[in-house]
Amino acid sequence: xxxxxxxxxxxxxxxxxxxxxxxxxxxxxxxxxxxxxxxxxxxxxxxxxxxxxxxxxxxxxxxxxxxxxxxxxxxxxxxxxxxxxxxxxxxxxxxxxxxxxxxxxxxxxxxxxxxxxxxxxx
Length: 122
Hints:
GO terms for molecular function: damaged DNA binding; DNA-directed DNA polymerase activity; metal ion binding. This protein is α+β, with helices and mostly antiparallel strands.
């Protein structure tokens, strides 16, 4: 019989595995027609993510994107980088490399950017 006892010490702090930002659009967006708006949204997400990384003292070796299309199909792509990055510009560049590997065959409902393989900064 199990009594639900565990003699291991309780760990109250753990290092994050990843940090992400995402947004759901007010209306589904078309990858071609709404390209400028999607580009602005990607940049904003990366700026927010860069601020989160800096505030928490991390840089990222892996940048990933998450896209949800109409019909709720979700696609993710990751890009592993040679060096850990923290700036919005570097995050945007890596996220755009991920986007090039997606077939945009439907309208977009959600976009997210994730920083993974986190490395503590100074």
